[in-house]
Amino acid sequence: MKLADFIKSEDFKKEKHVPVIEAPDSVKKNEPFHITVTVGKEIPHPNTTEHHIRWIQVFFQPDGDPYVYEIGKYEFNAHGESVQGPNTGAVYTEPTVTNKVKLNKSGTILALSFCNIHGLWESSKKIVVEE
Fold first, then answer.
1. Is Protein transport given among the entry's keywords (predicted)?
2. Annotation says 34 is catalytic
3. For this structure, is 50 an active site residue?
4. Mean pLDDT, the chain, integer
């Protein structure tokens, strides 16, 4: 059994789990640009005490490189918890992250998210680096 056996990429109809990657299709070599990853962009994810996205992880796989490089891991730790009970807290985090990066090689951005109820979800986006 492998961890990859548990990673899903096809979403449910009523709620979204697959991370949506927003980034340019092409960028200039070593020129900074933003990558935004959101879970629940089209149809919101519940993000309640009982059901929420815990984290998003973003990676880069350069073309022709045998390794994947981690860009970042982002935790979402406030889901309406309170001593008064579930969903009564003062703050709820929304699973969206933006990172500024530079690439010197074309490749693929990979995103992985974790729902505390429905497990691991992935997506990817190819980016071409122009000289």
1. no
2. no
3. no
4. 94
Q: What's the one-letter identity of residue 60?
A: F
SS3 4: helix
Is 41 or 30 the better-scoring residue by pLDDT?
Answer: 30
**Of the candidates 11, 7, 39, 26, the residue with the CA atom closest to the CA atom of residue 126:** 26
* CATH of the domain spanning 3-130: 2.60.40.730
- To the query of whether residue 17 is one of the catalytic residues in this protein, the response is yes
Mean pLDDT of the region 107-113: 97
Q: Considering 22, 51, 94, 122, which one is annotated as catalytic?
A: 51
Asked if 115 is an active-site residue, the reply is: yes
Amino acid at residue number 7? I
51-106, pLDDT tens digit by residue?
A: 999 999 999 999 999 999 999 999 999 999 999 999 999 999 999 999 999 999 99
Residues 6 or more apart in contact with residue 33 via CB below 8 angstroms: 23, 24, 27, 100, 101, 102
Single out the catalytic residue among 81, 118, 122, 125. 118
